[in-house]
């Protein structure tokens, strides 16, 4: 299991199952937590009696090599995540790429239990540190630092700003940079009120350097 959120989650009382129509096959023990952007290794080996606090999870069912289903349900029986998969091949792993992505499941190059999925040639998104909400008086420039770490080497992050008047795209290295809104030379001079209300949204577009 992977928690894509930055905050830890308490999984006590959640359910895991290999049959979506029967969501309560295995109840996750009390005190089981999953840290932010962390992994929890789950063994579908039908040996749930071997579970120990803080360790891997062992569930009360096994997955079929001919294909099956897998689901996570909250304590109220609402599905958090679930999917079906087809016949499996020895020593071949399938999973989401990048971690936490939408379906479909992909055939991965190497098994990576308990850690980040790996796909040769894959382009994982950069990880951005959260930006706090900020306000400034009218007419004062707002400057902030965006920090991103890219798990794939040899890449850079490109930012673009979007407002009423389109701004040119500019490239910023993946190390921290100070940036702010800069009007295009072709933009008309903004009025005082427009300057006070102007909002800049940064959108990331990861690119691989060739």
Give a short summary of the structure:
This protein is an all-beta fold and 210 residues long.
Give your account of this protein's structure.
- The structure is a single chain.
- The chain is mainly β and 210 residues long.
- The chain folds into two domains: 9-108, Sandwich (Immunoglobulin-like); 127-208, no CATH class.
- The protein is 3% helix and 29% strand.
- It contains one helix and 17 strands.
- The strands form seven sheets. It has a four-stranded antiparallel sheet, with no helix packed on it.
- The chain starts with 8 loop residues before the first strand and ends with a strand.
- The relative contact order is 0.12.
- Mean pLDDT is 78; it is low at 164-210.
Cα shape: globular
How is the CATH topology of the largest domain named? Immunoglobulin-like
Number of helices: 1
Q: Approximately how much beta-strand content do the residues carry?
A: 25-35%
Major sheet summary line:
4 strands, antiparallel
Radius of gyration: 23 Å
Strand order of the largest sheet: 3-2-7-8
Order of helices and strands: EEEEEEEEEEEEEEEEHE
Low-confidence stretches: 164-210
The CATH architecture name of the largest domain reads Sandwich
What's the SSE blueprint?
Layout: E1 9-10, E2 15-17, E3 26-27, E4 33-34, E5 42-43, E6 57-58, E7 68-73, E8 79-85, E9 93-95, E10 106-108, E11 127-128, E12 144-146, E13 148-149, E14 155-162, E15 170-172, E16 177-179, H1 192-197, E17 201-208
């Amino acid at each position: 299991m992977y928690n894509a959120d930055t905050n830890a989650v308490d999984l006590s009382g959640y359910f895991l199952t290999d049959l979506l129509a029967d969501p309560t096959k295995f109840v996750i023990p009390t005190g089981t937590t999953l840290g932010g952007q962390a992994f929890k290794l789950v063994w579908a080996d039908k040996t749930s009696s071997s579970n120990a606090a803080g360790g891997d999870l062992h569930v009360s069912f096994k997955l079929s090599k001919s294909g099956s289903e897998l689901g996570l349900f909250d304590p109220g029986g609402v599905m958090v995540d679930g999917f079906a998969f087809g016949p499996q091949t020895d020593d071949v792993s399938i999973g989401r790429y990048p971690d936490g992505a939408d379906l479909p499941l992909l055939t991965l190059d190497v098994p990576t239990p308990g850690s980040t999925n790996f796909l040769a040639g894959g382009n994982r998104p950069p990880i951005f540190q959260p930006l706090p909400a900020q306000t400034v008086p009218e007419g004062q420039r707002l400057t902030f630092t965006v920090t991103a770490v890219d798990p794939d080497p040899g890449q850079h992050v490109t930012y673009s700003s979007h407002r009423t008047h389109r701004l040119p795209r500019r490239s910023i290295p993946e190390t921290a940079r100070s940036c702010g809104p800069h009007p295009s030379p072709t933009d008309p001079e903004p009025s005082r009120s427009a300057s006070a209300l102007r909002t800049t949204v940064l959108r990331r577009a990861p690119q691989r350097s060739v």
